[in-house]
């Protein structure tokens, strides 16, 4: 039997530079830094997106880890192009100020791939965070 009342609690991202990644998510998507527990042996930064009720936990990467840092280091160079993200691994957020958001990405020099659903109802923009994790931002109507 499936769990009842399940909801997304948080998403975690491992990084060798959690401060850089935290600044990106705060500046680009509006996350707010919240209190993080002290794990002692490694650093964490917890971020919250109050409008969505979701959190991201940024976790200091083990220096001796043999796993790739992120998709950039694990994949061939062609997958670094955001045009591959609509069918690849990514997290999606929605914003009501889509055109303004796109201008912000352009002003910051972030490479993007933009498209819209065939019926034109939803616009999408795809890009990578500083560690190479895929992101999508979709348009939404103001409530």
Automatic annotation (TrEMBL):
InterPro entries: Glyas_Bleomycin-R_OHBP_Dase, Glyas_Fos-R_dOase_dom, VOC_core. This is Uncharacterized protein. PROSITE patterns: VOC. It holds the Pfam family Glyoxalase. SUPFAM superfamilies: Glyoxalase/Bleomycin resistance protein/Dihydroxybiphenyl dioxygenase. PANTHER family: GLYOXALASE FAMILY PROTEIN, EXPRESSED. Signal peptide: none annotated. One of its GO terms (molecular function) is lyase activity.
